[in-house]
Amino acid sequence: MSLLPLTETQAEIQRLARDYAQRELVPLAGERDRASRFDRVMVEQMAALGFLGMLIPESYDGLGLDANSYLLALEEIAVADATAAVTLSVHNSLPTQMILTYGSEAQRTRWLPPLARGELLGAFALSEPEAGSDAASLRAQATRDGDDWILDGTKAWVSHGNEAGVILCMARTDTPENRRGSKGISTFILTPDLPGFAVSKKEAKMGLRASPTVQIVLDRCRVPGDRLVGEVGRGLTYALGSLDHGRLGIAAQAVGIARAALEASVRYAGERKQFGRAIGEFQAIQFKLADMATRITAARTLLHTAAAAKQRGEKVTRYCSMAKLFATETAMWVTTQAVQVFGGYGYVTDYSVERHMRDAKVTEIYEGTSEIQRIVIARETLAAAAAADGCLPD
Ligand code: CAA
């Protein structure tokens, strides 16, 4: 039974993702995490199911699914393996959406089919060592050279940037003499074969260890002119617009991580005996499970309501941020409770809940920290109130 009014297609995609994830991902998730091993086979399997092209129209070899189907699938994948979910989320929500929404027809025809088929994995390079939350302060510089652009700089926190065939990169196209702030940034389609492109540092992380996070160094990297996406100077707007999608994806990932922790806790509460009874018979544990289940359902409902509005073409930046904020803080809270339910066994690697807790943490950080989501929500709420005489019915 689902609280969400699922269409037949949505229920079918959810089932397909769940069957695949439980069969293929669950058995290897722990080992991949311990070895910090990115699994290409996993990407190939998900590509064979069409999951690398879930939001890409069929005319470009994608599945052309609606946002809700995509997010249902992401949740199922995240229940099994949060690293598989972030791979899917970044690929589907950011680079492919940017090319689909802001790219030219020639760019869509060239790049979307191989991305949809999973022949190329897509990554997103916005942040830099000195430009995280303040994305507009990025420094990577793009300079015109005939028909080409020359890019110099360092991009940071790029999820699977060392595995990607296409990286959507934001760089400055204004000049040091005439800085234009958020209007001085453009978007480029990079590929690892470009001269001057190199992957440098690979981060050693607390969680999501099977998903590599790298820096990319651009050293006089020559980029052909036809790799510029959309208009010069609109790159930050494109990136932030795409992050609306991305934040829904991360919210779905967080719901999945939280659900994995709840499911493990329910199982354990039935098995573990103390004081002569299964611990699940004690209200102390039951109340935890009740709060975990309630918060997860609330997060999923907010997420799918926001996604349905986005699917209808409404501008729902505020709700994307609310969904991300609430779902990711839910994931952190629920996984922490799960470790508590397990007691000492929650703190060691015999069970999965310590991994879920480590994996949950980054969802409150990447694609905009909780603090940034609150800034976005506050700004938009104040603007909505000002436009409607203080009336905020929803
Ligand atoms: N949709 C479309 N356009 C948007 C938008 C949205 N959601 N949000 C902002 N814009 C537009 C604005 O209208 C503005 O356009 P104009 O210049 O034409 O007016 C432009 O984008 C700049 O916006 P702001 O003026 O609001 O910019 P700001 O400097 O005040 O910053 C911010 C706003 C909310 C702090 C923003 O910088 C932000 O979200 N920061 C967090 C960045 C982030 O999420 N980084 C994560 C990177 S990805 C990652 O984590 C790694 C990975 O691999 C997954």
Class derived from helix and strand content = alpha+beta
**Distinct small molecules:** acetoacetyl-coenzyme A
What is the CATH class name of the largest domain? Mainly Alpha
Helix and strand pattern: HHHHHHEEEEEEEEHEEHHHHH
Number of separate helices: 12
Helix content: 40-55%
Strand element count: 10
On the 0 to 100 scale, the average pLDDT is: 97
CATH architecture of the largest domain: Up-down Bundle
CATH topology of the largest domain: Butyryl-CoA Dehydrogenase, subunit A, domain 3
Strand order of the largest sheet: 1-4-5-8
| Count of spatially separate domains | 3
If you compute it from the alpha carbons, what radius of gyration comes out, rounded to the nearest whole angstrom? 21 Å
- What portion of residues belong to β-strands? 5-15%
The major pleated sheet works out as:
4 strands, mixed
For the termini, the CA-CA separation is 27 Å
Shape: globular
**What's the CATH H-level homologous superfamily of the largest domain?**
Butyryl-CoA Dehydrogenase, subunit A, domain 3
Low-confidence stretches: none
At a glance:
Helix content is 53%, strand content 14%.
Give structural notes.
With 394 residues, the protein is of the alpha+beta class. It has three domains: 8-121, Butyryl-Coa Dehydrogenase, subunit A, domain 1, CATH 1.10.540.10; 123-232, Butyryl-CoA Dehydrogenase, subunit A, domain 2 (Beta Barrel); 237-387, Butyryl-CoA Dehydrogenase, subunit A, domain 3 (Up-down Bundle), CATH 1.20.140.10. The chain has helices at residues 8-35, 40-48, 67-80, 82-93, 95-102, 105-116, 235-271, 283-311, 317-342, 344-347, 353-363, 370-387; strands at 122-125, 141-145, 148-159, 166-172, 185-190, 197-202, 213-223, 228-229, 273-274, 277-278. Strands 1-4-5-8 form a four-stranded mixed β-sheet. It has a four-stranded antiparallel β-sheet with strand order 2-3-7-6, covered by helices on one side. Acetoacetyl-coenzyme A is lined by residues 90, 124, 126-127, 133, 135-136, 157-159, 182-183, 236-237, 240-241, 243-244, 317, 366-368, 372, 375-376.
